[in-house]
Design a protein that fits this description.
CATH architecture: 3-layer Sandwich
Helix content: under 10%
Strand content: 35-45%
Number of helices: 0
Strand order of the largest sheet: 2-3-4-8
Distance between the termini: 29 Å
Structural class: mainly beta
Number of strands: 10
Shape: globular
Largest sheet: 4 strands, antiparallel
Number of domains: 1
Radius of gyration: 14 Å
CATH topology: Rieske Iron-sulfur Protein
Order of helices and strands: EEEEEEEEEE
CATH superfamily: Rieske [2Fe-2S] iron-sulphur domain
């Protein structure tokens, strides 16, 4: 199975290869561009997480935000988001746009819904 094989995915999503698996060691991050949108991969807590490279508060890039464990700080205004849940810790508020991620043929693949439009 490869990243572009949509048969194993729900009918309304597709898997897009974004980086070789060996390119993302624990503690690292990688900014990828998929169909006109920035997606950041973070290898934290023993897993890789994929988020849109835009803070839900004001659209600031999150790719270079400070990381403390699984907590990402927005470099623009300091808002904090848990990469595992996508939520702000201990606060009901804004939520990151997250994407399912998997491995196929040695590549990290992000799943996008067919109705997702680039911003």
């Amino acid at each position: 199975m490869n990243c572009s094989d949509t048969k194993a995915q729900p009918e309304m999503s597709r898997r897009i290869p974004v980086a070789p698996v060996d390119e993302l060691a624990p503690g690292q991050r990688k900014l990828a561009f998929v169909e006109g949108r920035g997606i950041v991969l973070f290898h934290v807590g023993g897993a890789v997480r994929a988020i849109e490279n835009a803070c839900p508060h004001n659209g600031a890039s999150l790719a270079h935000g400070r990381l403390e464990g699984s907590i990402l700080h927005c470099p623009e205004h300091g808002l904090r988001f848990d990469l595992i849940t996508g939520c702000m810790p201990a606060v009901d508020g804004l939520r990151l746009t997250t994407f399912p991620i998997s491995v196929a043929e040695g590549q990290w693949c992000v799943s996008l819904d067919t109705h997702d439009e680039p911003r």
